[in-house]
Amino acid sequence: MGNGSWTIKCSDSCEEKNIRVLIISDRLMDRARALADYLSSESVDVVGLAQDRRQTMEIAQKSSFDYLIIAGYLKTQYTYGVIEELRKQRRCFLAVQWAMLDSLINGFCLSYKIPLKFERTLPFEEFVRFLKIHRNDPIPCFFEEITASEEEPDRSSDGLELLRDCSGQLKSYADRFLSWCKQL
To answer: Which residues contact 83 (CB under 8 A, 6 or more apart)?
Structure first.
């Protein structure tokens, strides 16, 4: 079956919840802290501010989030791997590159499948508006085929199991989607 992805659209009830973000930066911590402070003042839940892959994974294990915000480009490219690692864990989130947009950033976004980009020189309030606009975007839920050599049994044909870590709203949408697919 190989690698796959689905896009899930969050239901309208998501608008009632605060946006939850996890911010990572290994170069621009002062700017990342300023962004976190501003987002918090605008009722955005900042679940954590991480400087590297390890910290990001520790925070992600304890908290759910809607957006993984990469503040500036990451000087340690290995750290971008946290996006794929979280996707392998079947975590549903949108990655956002918050940076001075140039060809380097565009390349990183293509390489690491970062769907959203925002120019960090624009005002913070514009970024909050951007997050609110994209809060109901389809969320890519990437998954890997489970191989026989792994301890876990192969459940690649069970779409709901593959999305088990997504919220109840996402599961409901996936169930409707699977029913629709079976009718084809």
So the answer is: 68, 95, 112, 113, 114
